[in-house]
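Suppose a colleague, Dr. K., hands you the sequence of a protein chain of 253 amino acids and asks what its three-dimensional shape might be. Before reaching for any lab equipment, you can write down a predicted structure in token form. Begin with the sequence itself:
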Amino acid sequence: MRVHELKGYIENIYLVEEPTGLLLLDGCSRADVDKVCTYITRTLRRPLSDLTLIVVTHMHPDHAGGAVLLQRKTGAQIASHPMAQHWYKGLAGRTAHLIDVALTWWVAARLGKPRAHIWYHPVLVPDITLQDKQRLPGFADWQVLYTPGHTNHDLSLLHRPTQQLYIADLIVSVKKQLTAPYPVCHPNQYKRSLARIKQISPSRVYSAHVRPLDGRYIDYDALMSQAPALPKNHWHSAKNRIGRVFGRRSTQH
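The predicted structure, expressed as tokens, is then:
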């Protein structure tokens, strides 16, 4: 088993190579599809049909945006948590999707990247739904871990023989310090997810926005103590801004 790291539009992409096939640990962004396909055919010298499974850990643009287009090009199956397909449903969900696409462009601009085509359908219809502790179909050494908090449907993926773990957005880096991601929609669940990862004690940790980490040196207790106590997302941020505006107006009258 080899884990290949590709630099994506705004995230790290991890492509697992096994003799039986290729596994994409996350659906990347739509802007990354050609890069993944080129890497498979030119660098690995394998046919696109060798990509047999794409896991979508959660529905944000840099984790789900490329999944369906990659499926069309390779024939791979898409797997996600059952709740992923409901994340962007309804008016509130569609609004959140627009905001998340705009935030992706904002992050790309800060990284010096041009605006790319990253639009994707906000409702995913996976071929396979994944439950906690399940083994990945066709890749039995990989186990699914349900690690919500960033969203209500986040998944992490553990390679049992080597204890290497992909955590998607569970941990990010700001000013070279490990910290909680934005958003944290469910703070209590987020802290429980960190505690679970600490208990597993992975040998190596792969994150979408941090270079691979030696699991022995991650201070999970510090991350849990610094994590937000209240939800930190678009809706709560907007509500707090509105509250501050009206609060200032009330004090002026």
